[in-house]
Amino acid sequence: MDQDELKRMTAAAALEYVKPGSVIGVGSGTTVAVFIELLGAMPEGVRAGVSSSEASSEAMRSLGIDVVTLDRARPLDVYVDGADEVDPQLRLIKGRGAAHTREKVVAAASDRFICIVDESKIVDRLGSKMPLPVECVPMAEAYVVERLVALGGRPVKREGFLSDNGCLIFDVHGLDLSDPESMEVGLNAIPGVLDNGLFVRRRADVVLCAAASGVRTITL
Ligand code: 5RP
Fold first, then answer.
1. Which residue out of 85, 103, 135, 184 is catalytically annotated?
2. Which of 5, 28, 194 to probe ligand 1 with, by most ligand atoms within 8 A of CB?
3. Given pLDDT bands bounded at 50, 70 and 90, which one contains residue 157?
4. CA 66 to CA 182: how far, in whole Å?
């Protein structure tokens, strides 16, 4: 079974959590793109979506799904998003798509965070497969790099790239993530850091994990 099929399976399972006529929070990434496609095909669709990226907004609008601001729709019942890594406590690393800052805002404003992944995203320890994305205000670049290095990280800038917020993204290798909550808070305390890809304080409530054998629902 290929990854596209697994994405479709987990995205379809997430539809179970969507109430027709409701406003839902929508994340970003390739798995969410499939979810948006299925959302657009629901017979009794949603009233609107609160989006976490320009790409997801565009995808929703192209399918006739209204996109509204978080200010108009708070609090949200459900937020659906993918992840890059999921640990046994349903803590996540996100941000390979550089949308983690807005994703964290919409997730925080939602009662339930439904995370849609395939089994390749499940890890024993956060940071075991990928570096940690950190979003940084451009004028703070040199200062933030210095502080990331002081924390034991090796930041690699995404060259020629700006996020939807007009900011830089560093993929930070080598950080000690054995206490991910302290690292999430500590990184965000660096002046110039907008947010980082650790979702620990607002972790997933439900992980829908697709494998060839089916979709497993993981909760704590
Ligand atoms: C974007 C994200 C995505 O949710 C994450 O990268 C997973 O993406 P995909 O479903 O394409 O693997 O955090 O900022």
1. 103
2. 28
3. very high
4. 38
